[in-house]
Amino acid sequence: MNINQYRTKRPRYLGDIESQEAGENSDWHSHEFGQLISADSGSMYVGTPDRILLLSPAMAVWIPPNAQHWLRFGSENVMRYVDVSRDEAERLGSTCRVFAMTPLLGALFRATMPDGLTARTTRHISALYALLRLEIQSAQDVPLSLVMPQDKRIRGFAEAALDDPGNIRSVNAWLSDAPASRKTIERLFISETGMPPSRWLRHARVFHAVSLLASGQKVTTVALDMGYESTSAFSYMFRQTLGVSPREFVAKPAFATL
Q: Fewest CB within a 10 Å sphere: which of 61, 90, 137, 138?
């Protein structure tokens, strides 16, 4: 199908829902269309060439057409996908983003399912699409993405921290085997990620914590898994990063009212 046929035949928004096994991966790929992804339950990592994004029920991810990305699924995940035509995608931006999910956005995502579209008139569908676009454009971005360093001297440390940050007891222990001086490592992290190693590790811990909380684990359990000796210390770190406590995050969509 050529681009002109693609533009005319594909609906502006078309939803689907899927569930994958925990730990399942989708390797590097891209789409001719844009894609919105929200989580009915569980969590998912989205990787792009320069950063990692995290999806939980409190947020949604926008992936523009032709953007190379991979997916890694957490436990108990049920994901809602909304494919977006190229013409419509041009209005939603050319960069990947994570934004706050709200009850209205959730309802509009569900309205794009095929059975919801067939039950509505063309005029009704057009109005829903226009409202969905406006809600996405005005949605607040959520700080749940991490820039991945490319320098080989620190890339492996970043990948290890992202996979299992709870196993890292301190920044010193994490970087003890680095093939360069601590000053050089600090400089590399700041130049490549915009963060010193300590802050980058804190964000990696929040990533992992959000994924575990989204799968239904208790706050106390997650705090211990992250290597914290007390729930209060973990909660302080979580609030410092996301602006809400872990219990507030679990109790309701943490960003729905921002």
A: 138
